[in-house]
UniProtKB/TrEMBL annotation:
It holds the Pfam family FixP_N. GO terms for cellular component: plasma membrane. This is Cbb3-type cytochrome c oxidase subunit. It is found in: Cell inner membrane. It comes from the Bacteria. Gene3D superfamilies: 6.10.280.130, Cytochrome c-like domain. Belongs to the CcoP / FixP family. GO terms for molecular function: electron transfer activity; heme binding; iron ion binding; oxidoreductase activity. The keyword Metal-binding applies. Heme c 2 binds at M204, C245, C248, H249. Heme c 1 binds at C161, C164, H165, M290. The chain crosses the membrane at residues 6-24, 57-76.
């Protein structure tokens, strides 16, 4: 925050507090010219107001809140760039990456500052760290059969993975379905854990060497591989150009999990199965990114999530 806006907030906040004090003191005095307890000189619908003072208990509470307001502003951040006497903050502000967050956390601890988010993370790690450590000692296949471990893995999945794969893990356009046992990089426990730990970057290059007609022919042939009814002449023409695709998808078009190249014969599509969607993929390419989670969740938690994901495809 710039110095100008910091000063503006400080002046405005203090001015309001002073204004409230003045208003309260003004209401504590009798400026009506009518003694307390006597009737006022106006009425409405037969109701006459009596000149009564504000209740004492109400006044005391109001003064307490005003005093607390000044105390709070002195101890905690709230007045512009003033950080407060306690050095407390809700979180490390203005971080833009995991690396910046880690650096800010380390700097705050070194300076002896109280960062509420970091404190809660430490408390959670102290309480639940041993639980995850114990679970990580067990094989993923075994955890997938443990009802309590599955519940823990599900909660971790909902917190961290459901944004892309959905709460039911069935994915969406560009995000794989994790329940159908169709895997780009393999569905073994080790492969799933590796995907979560290190992330994946699936690249389908744009086939810019083909013109529009050839793209249509190639897309038609790709559609025919999964047994769909297509124009046989277009498919025949597209088959000749499919040789370019076999480097990744294989001669049998059943994909290559080492490269993350999908099986084109099973009629399961990540970006859509329509003629237009396939042509778009061929013409423009695709770049799917699965972020690495090892520095965010740690291996113990990833081990538990892996068991949950693995179990989804085994049902």
């Amino acid at each position: 925050m710039s110095s100008f806006w910091s000063a503006w907030i400080i002046v405005l906040t203090l001015a309001f507090l002073v204004g409230i004090i003045w208003l309260l003191r003004w209401n504590m005095s009798n400026y009506t010219g009518i003694k307390e307890g006597e009737l006022m000189d106006h009425e409405f619908d037969g109701i006459v107001e009596i000149n009564n003072p504000l209740p004492r208990w109400w006044m005391i509470l109001f003064w307490i809140t005003i005093v607390w307001g000044f105390v709070y502003l002195a101890l905690y951040p709230g007045l512009g760039n003033f950080a407060g006497l306690l050095g407390w903050s809700s979180s490390n502000q203005d971080v833009r990456s995991l690396e910046e967050s880690q650096q800010a956390t380390a700097a705050a601890r070194e300076a002896g500052l109280i960062v509420e988010y970091d404190r809660q993370v430490d408390q959670a790690e102290e309480k639940f760290g041993p639980v995850f450590a114990a679970l990580s000692e067990r094989p993923i296949e075994e955890l997938a059969q443990d009802e309590e471990a599955v519940k823990i893995g599900q909660r971790l999945f909902l917190q961290n993975c459901a944004q892309c794969h959905g709460s039911n893990a069935m994915g969406g356009k560009g995000f794989p379905n994790l329940t159908d046992n169709d895997w780009l990089y393999g569905g073994s426990p080790a492969a799933i854990k590796h995907s979560l730990m290190e992330g994946r970057n699936g690249v389908m290059p744009a086939q810019s060497q083909f013109n529009d007609q050839q793209i249509t022919e190639l897309a038609t042939y790709v559609m025919s591989l999964s047994g769909r009814k297509v124009d046989p002449e277009l498919a025949k023409a597209g088959k000749a150009n499919f040789m370019v695709c076999t480097a990744c998808h294989g001669q049998d078009a059943k994909g290559n999990q080492a490269l993350g190249a999908p099986n084109l014969t099973d009629n399961i599509w990540l970006y859509g199965s329509s003629q237009e969607a396939i042509e778009e993929t061929l013409r423009n390419g695709r770049n799917g990114v699965m972020p690495a989670w090892k520095d965010i969740l740690g291996e113990d938690k990833i081990h538990v999530i892996s068991s949950y994901v693995y179990g989804l495809s085994q049902e």
